[in-house]
Design a protein that fits this description.
The complex is a heterodimer of chains A (about 250) and B (about 240). Chain A is about 70% helix and about 5% strand. By secondary structure, chain A is mainly alpha-helical. Chain A has two domains: about 130 residues, no CATH class; about 70 residues. In chain A, strands 1-2 form a two-stranded antiparallel ribbon. In chain A, helix 1 packs antiparallel against helix 4 and helix 2 packs parallel to helix 4. The longest helix of chain A has about 30 residues. Chain A starts with 15 loop residues before the first helix and ends in a 6-residue tail after the last helix. Chain B is α/β, with parallel strands linked by helices. Chain B contains eight helices and ten strands. Chain B has a six-stranded mixed beta sheet, with helices on both faces. Chain B has a four-stranded antiparallel beta sheet with strand order 2-1-4-5, covered by helices on one side. Chain B starts with 6 loop residues before the first strand and ends in a 21-residue tail after the last strand. The chains are: A mainly alpha (about 250), B alpha/beta (about 240). At the A-B interface, helix 5, helix 6 and helix 7 of A face helix 3, helix 4 and helix 5 of B.
Chain lengths: ~250, ~240
Amino acid sequence: MKDVAIVDSFVSGLDPRAKIVSIFAFSSLAAVSNRFPVLFLLLLMSVGMATMTRAPLSDILKRMIPVNVLVLFLWFFLPFTFAGETFFSIGPLTLAREGVIHASRISIKSNAIMLALVSLVLSTSIADMGRAMFSLGIHKKIVHLFFFTYRYIHVIHKEYNSLLWAVKIRGFAPKNSRRTYQTFAWLIGMTLVKSFDRAHRVYNAMLCRGFDGRLYGINEFSIKKTDVAVMMISLAATVALGALEWSITPIF
Amino acid sequence: MVDHTDILIQLKEITFGYPGATPVLDKLSLTFSRGQRIGLLGPNGSGKTTLFHVIMGLLKPTGGTLNILGQPMTKEADFIPARKQIGLVFQDADDQLFSPTVLEDVAFGPLNQGKTRKEAIDISKETLALLGLEGYGERITHKLSGGEKKLVSLATTLSMKPKALLLDEPANGLDEKTKERLSSVLSNLDISLILISHNMDFMTRLTDSICVIDKGKISAEGIPKPHQHLHIHPFGEHSHEHK
């Protein structure tokens, strides 16, 4: 549950709205692209974005671990379960060429999208991201949810930990037993009940300060020429890659 | 003789309870006027916090009448303007601080009062400075220490410039130094307040009268009287001070 330290860089100085629009277009294209040259170029672009944030490499890599654990899991199953031309066999297991290609595509796509999102997170504060979402027309309820999830995930985590400690200090050692599962079910249940109570108290505290359903921000964004230029360049690059993806001429 | 225009909050025979249980507030009456500083004492579960929640319209009483600034409070719409005049500081600061940064949280109330962004920022900065929290504006709320959270939650209410403050155990869980700082801040404020606390020293420093609430009723009222105690504690032979 660590907060992101934003490093001063060219990317962190850009208008968050320009970044969100560019990364949304980029991720949408990455999700639907299938041609390897396009996918490699998208991955290269995302590496460029991540580098431009000037964030420590360890911070970037740490955030890439979860997605790659999932990708690794896919590599264990996809090549062996896909029907198609045999690539090679290991004993009774047969690797299908189509399975390997499909797993490769997913690996490149997910890493490109994740790197782009990590670049956004490492260069924009949560407050600015929420306000930018609101200013881009995303419904206020979703923006509220986004803000409150960020704010209270730490509190809920702390409450869960307190409950966990309360269990541990009374000698609880988890085992593969019915009692262990029951204890964890109670812990999770109690965390949910506490979260519900907390949500109620927070809402009451907001009412006491005149909350009428609207959230006002204190910062106003002002889009600069640089923001427009960066957004146009990134959108043009995305469109060009899209054209390459859907061009009739076979390129691979 | 109390001037009626000075009455901020008036509760007459307020009753509140959950079905099938003993009433939490049982025909409780209380008049709170401008300039008063009342301490509310009572055992756990005696109805102190419930009383604050009833005053703020968060809980609906089952009987009795409530007037705030001369206006009868009967429905939710009546409480909306009242909440902009009476500030409640919650017992748990984590319930109060929900914005990503301190400045945004302190500005939340003024923005709801219709202030412009610039006005809200100026008021918030002034309030933070008043509480000795200059430079805290960009701090992440959930990363503050317990004492800092308490002071910031007080700032979130003070920035609305309320006519009265309801403080629910503000010194709870604070170390002596932070308690002292909070006490000094509160005693320097020119504001009417009702304070719930289990800490008698803290309460007597900040209030001019004390009400004892028990079994949902005000059971005793009075002014704090100076008196002496003999006391004993370890290391008593060493030179030390009591505050």
